[in-house]
Amino acid sequence: MAMQAAEIESLIRAGIPDAEVEITDLAGDGDHYAARVVSESFRGLPRVRQHQAVYAALGGRMGGALHALQLTTATPE
Amino acid sequence: MTEDVHARIDELVRNNRIVLFMKGSPLFPQCGFSSRAVAILQHLGAEFESVDVLQDQGIRQGIKAYSDWPTIPQLYVDGEFVGGSDIMMEMYESGELAQLVEGARAQAH
Description:
The complex is a heterodimer of chains A (77) and B (109). Chain A has 77 residues and is α+β, with helices and mostly antiparallel strands.
């Protein structure tokens, strides 16, 4: 059920085209990741909406195939 | 989600100033993310209601649709969805969560 970091990254990029995505495999087990996603499209949105945009890009895998994704979102400086 | 589940979640969210939907109880969290959420709230001295979704499959699935959020834990303050454990940690570090919890406490008095 685990996902590869590259797959997570490409799904996020497909959903949020301008996103800068940085994935870290936290445990080395292909199941616990951290993602930092930076996108201009997040500007002015509350954090909940920013995270929902990333979850939408992951198309329902979050909480399923992807158990643990520690997510940080930001807008470009 | 059935109307019954929706109504029960509505009631929990409206009748408690701070409510955490989590896996397990604050004393015995059953997941690292829920454990972290509890630790943050306790560190802020927040009085909160907790709902163990493992005890209620209806709420476990229903809360995800209710909040449009795929994971547990989920925090509500004053009827508003705040986020999961990552957002709680970010808001804790920035001081925003302390303010939100203080606000909830002040209104309760």
